[in-house]
Amino acid sequence: MESMAVAGHSIHTCFHIKSKNPRVNLEKQVFGVPVLHHGVSCIGKKLKGKVGAGVQAVQVGLEESERVRNLRSLERTLELDAVSERELREKGFLGLRKTKLVCTIGPACSSLEDLEKLVLGGMNVARLNMCHNTREWHRDVIRKIKKLNEEKGFSVSVMIDTEGSQIHVVDHGAPSSLKVQEDSIWLFTNEKFDGSVPFTVQAKYEGFSEGIKVGDELVIDGGMARFEVIEKLRSDLRCKCTDPGLFLPRAKFSFWRDGKLVERNYELPTLSTKDWSDIEFGISEGVNFIAMSFVNDAESVRHLKNYLSTKSATSIRVLAKIESLESLQKLEEIIEASDGIMVARVDLGVEIPLEQIPTVQEEITKVCRQLNKPVIVASQFLESMIEYPTPTRAEYADALMLAGESAIGLFGQKALSVLQMTSSRMESSSREENRQGSLLPRQLGVSLPDRIAEQICNSAVELANNLAVDAIFVYTKHGHMASLLSRNRPNPPIFAFTNDESTRMSLNLQWGVIPLLVDLSDDMESNISSTIHLIKSKGLVKEGDSVLVVSDVTPSRATPMAFQSIQVKTIA
After folding, report:
1. Rounded to an integer, what distance in angstroms lies between the CA atom of residue 188 and that of residue 233?
2. C-beta of residue 286 within 8 angstroms of C-beta of residue 156
3. 232, 280, 389, 511: which has the highest count of C-beta atoms within 10 A?
4. Residue limits of the Pyruvate kinase C-terminal domain (predicted)?
């Protein structure tokens, strides 16, 4: 049943189980696992389906051959992000940063020149908060980013963040943060006014003070500043600052009494009329991600995804923001329904004690990895860098997001530089201590082909780490196998080759994945040979480099089988 041959640099291991179905041909030698339309194949387990599996290690020369000449005649192109290419040349495979960086775009960084500096500094995704600025301003920023992508060879994705319910928002009206002094007296009111009024804060929801008593504590942004309610004037509150700090525009607030959150149920829809208008705008401008604010259940996520599937010509991924106690109580079902998660630390800090945030963040990240969903940790990594150049702390996650630090901060580019540096150092230390692969992935697939894909990716990462290969190449249409590889946190970077632009842009949030746009054919070996040839022609691989190749080709009329395989190739 098993045979192994060793010759030079070649190792070949195959398992063959004959099919009981005479129409199924499993005798043809292929590099990997043939999976039929109905799915009858797997690795490493006894299953009811019929199995054919293979792992092959070969030494590959890139000299002129009939195959390469044929591939050249196809005039294939390879689109690799210019920043990733530069980083690869400078640092090599293992020096590539794997944590993705998201920057919120605001007045401090919206010029074409500033946007380019952020991209060159490592920005993978540009986030636009629909709470701020005009529709025309957002459109201008999106088109600047697309212009940079087209003219400079960048590959930056665009995310819009819905405004959501404003019941927990207060605004002092100033364009940037204010320093709140201890014992200063402030008026919190629901009366509307333009601009800013000294020591006056506008609440966005009329009933913001309902049920609040004198002596209650008003907390800004999870502890950036604290006030005591000293007088209630109808619906207005007069408050004294008890803990000074920075007061950001459009800050989140909460009320606490006797050390406990004052909970109030407003029963407002997740998406407002304005949010739906902003979503239509995002569709028309071709954004790649929509982050939903104040998600409290999975149904609202499913509703938006269904809507986008009927309205958008390209795939737009939906991220759910976890920022309330209610969302934590329904965490797993929300993660399962979404395409990714954003951990809104500051907003969570409004509703749970700050000292619990790290533990909650770790648990959310763990569940996201188990369910194979990218997770962004957002807000106030380097909050002091809004006005001061020295960071107070830095943190690690699958993707990190700068909010005020880049949008309104005076040192946005330095904040991004610090975040890039610290994330790279954390990746290096995690790799040395072998922490990244410590999570045991949960089996997600129900159908046999999906379970095969999971087992292949789990095994591929273990093989890549044990063999110390330089890179992993994956060929994928929708990015599924790339994400399965990513959740296992391999030491080498993952180069994901796809012929779908929306897949390429969505992979910008996947840890360790470098997406490349390339023409792909139904001939898997041609795809592998051509991409290695193109990568080598750019001087990005050299003789002796080893590459682990994982393929995932969708069945077509030309190829009635999907080939899911693992190969190890040494560049000769």
Report:
1. 10
2. no
3. 511
4. 454-554
Model-level pTM? Answer: 0.78
Task: State how far the Cα of 553 lies from the Cα of 161, in Å rounded to an integer.
Answer: 34
Task: Give the Cβ contact number of residue 79 at 10 Å.
Answer: 14
Q: At what angle do helices 480-487 and 448-467 cross, to 10 degrees?
A: 50
**Structure letter (DSSP) for residue 354:** G
DSSP character for 338? S
**Cα-atom radius of gyration of the chain, to the nearest Å?**
26
Specify the residue for token string 């591939």.
71
Give the C-alpha separation, 567 to 10, whole Å. 11
**Residues 370-406: pLDDT tens digits?**
999 999 987 555 454 444 333 333 346 778 887 755 5
Q: Is 8 left (phi over 0), alpha (psi -120 to 50) or beta?
A: left
Nearest to 365 by CA among 391, 345, 393: 345
To the nearest 10 degrees (0 to 180), the angle between helices 524-537 and 66-73 is 80
- Judge contact between 79 and 517, C-beta under 8 A: yes
Interacting residues of 487 by C-beta distance below 8 A, sequence separation 6+:
369, 370, 372, 439, 441, 511
Cβ atoms within 10 A of the Cβ of 261, count?
A: 15
